[in-house]
TrEMBL record:
Coiled coil: none annotated. This is Phosphate ABC transporter substrate-binding protein. It holds the Pfam family DUF2139.
Length: 487
């Protein structure tokens, strides 16, 4: 692969904090991605290394900013369809606000044979502070030869839309906000809910042949314990099942096969550590995605909402690249603040990363605040031993979650590790329950084992456990912490 060294320091791009490299897609000899918040779409002919860039000025006047922050991309025949949102032109105010009058949701198409870009569809409500639902996912319907658009992030025109890929005519199919979807057999599954309030609340399934919709509620957790706020980050399909990657774990199953979409707890820290603003791809028959440590965050503490700052800025561990091949879940990479996009190309895995998160409405800057790059890995990392990683969690966070009816934390995948341990530092005596399970299909039940812990330092050897383990303390712990080390 004769590609340039893709490293992007922050440049002009008014928005909230940092965007990233999104939509990585290799198709018909062309590698595409969008750099946000600079609003630059890149198209690289991998054979000649010739690169073209597009600044989204088919939407409006320069200077543009934004681009895509959810990996909205699809390929059909010789075309790459890419969506998202763009300010055209961008208007930044010195009171750290950006105006949204010129914010557009969009779908463009790149012809890989002609090397040309066309605007297929756009939408805007031209409001100073509100915006039309961003395009956060694009799914091709091969039966109807159309594009299905998921739209959740915004104030109007949310839901699932059908887009004619020839005329650019869009039609709303449902109006409930939907950030992501995936196609399974002859059905398209979509997650329904708002990621910045309650998270995923249900699944809608569209029969691509008949056009009928069905609704399914998320299932129970395999560890038998409650879960809260499953914000939806990515969806994918494999084994004739739908997989929804959410804050705190994974939903997997297929109600049309008689299975509910069961919840498998994974990296549940009661922070915003989540598989958010990243995609999931099929690799080797399984699924590859990432759980991110710092994708969205409150920059300035708000005395009226101290939990908001703590939950988004408490860094519990590295961002991890995760390979799902049921019943196995394996960590295959460890990265910094966040992974924004993943793709396969010529025996390599392309992993786009960013050193900084998105921020909030009153925390805009006239430039992107992150350092972004593309890391190349050999596909063989899927078959190798996992990297050494560690996680450190203040136990006050699951303690506060107990007040909301939850409190079980973790979901650490042990596959591939020879040594693993949990080090608890407690302010008082407590009892710990360890739940052991795997990502078996259909879902099984966890086994549980309890341990008596004393005030001070306690070392729990996890080498006798396998699969995935989650933890629950009997009494809330307000001052202690736990460190989980996987080697």
């Amino acid at each position: 692969m004769l590609l340039p060294n893709y490293r992007f320091p922050g440049r002009y791009g008014p928005e909230w904090g940092s965007g990233g490299i999104f939509g990585l897609r290799y198709h018909n000899g062309t590698l595409y991605f969008t750099l946000a918040f600079e609003a630059e779409a890149h198209f690289i002919d991998v054979r000649s290394c010739e690169e073209k860039t597009y600044d989204f000025t088919l939407l409006g006047e320069a200077p543009t900013s934004g681009g895509d922050t959810y990996n909205a991309v699809e390929t059909v025949d010789g075309f790459i369809y890419f969506g998202g949102w763009v300010h055209a032109p961008a208007v930044y105010r010195e009171d750290r606000r950006i105006l949204f009058n010129n914010k557009y949701s969009h779908v463009h198409v790149y012809d890989t044979e002609e090397g040309s870009v066309k605007l297929l569809w756009k939408d805007s409500i031209h409001h100073e502070t509100d915006w039309a639902g961003e395009v956060s996912d694009i799914i091709y319907d091969p039966y109807g030869d159309r594009l299905l658009l998921a739209r959740e992030d915004g104030h109007a025109n949310l839901g699932v839309y059908s887009l004619d890929r020839r005329t650019g005519r869009a039609e709303a199919l449902i109006h409930e906000p939907s950030p992501k979807g995936t196609r399974v057999h002859d059905t398209a599954f979509f997650g329904i809910g708002n990621n910045f309030t309650e998270g995923l609340r249900e699944f809608r399934a569209l029969d691509l042949i008949s056009g009928r919709w069905e609704t399914f509620k998320p299932g129970e957790s395999v560890d038998g314990r409650p879960y809260i706020r499953p914000e939806l980050g990515a969806m994918a399909s494999s084994y004739n099942r739908a997989f929804a990657f959410v804050r705190g774990g994974i939903f997997a199953g297929n109600p049309f096969m008689g299975e509910e979409l069961s919840f498998y707890r994974l990296f549940d820290f009661y922070t915003f550590y989540a598989p958010f603003r990243v995609n999931a791809i099929n690799a080797g028959g399984g699924i590859l995605t990432a759980f991110n440590a710092h994708h969205d965050a409150v920059y300035r503490p708000d005395p009226s909402d101290p939990r908001g700052w703590a939950s988004t800025n408490t860094i519990t561990g590295p961002s991890v690249l995760v390979y799902v091949a049921p019943p196995m879940v394996k960590i295959v990479g460890a990265f910094g603040a966040r992974v924004t996009s993943i793709e396969k190309m010529n025996g390599k895995l392309l992993v786009a990363t960013n050193s900084a998160p998105n921020t909030g409405a009153r925390e805009a800057t006239p430039f992107d605040t992150g350092n972004r790059d593309i890391v190349l890995l050999d596909e063989k990392v899927l078959q190798e031993r996992p990297p050494a990683v560690s996680f450190s969690l203040p136990l006050a966070l699951p303690g506060m979650a107990k007040e909301l009816g939850a409190g079980t934390f973790g979901g650490f995948p042990l596959d591939g590790y020879r040594e693993s341990r949990a080090v608890f530092h407690l302010s008082g005596d407590n009892r710990l329950t360890v739940y052991e399970y795997d990502l078996s299909l259909p879902a099984g039940e966890a086994t549980a084992e309890t341990f008596e812990l004393k005030a001070g330092k306690n070392i729990l050897d996890l080498s006798s456990f396998s699969g995935i383990v989650s933890f629950e303390l009997e009494k809330p712990e307000k001052r202690g912490k736990v460190r989980v080390e996987l080697r």
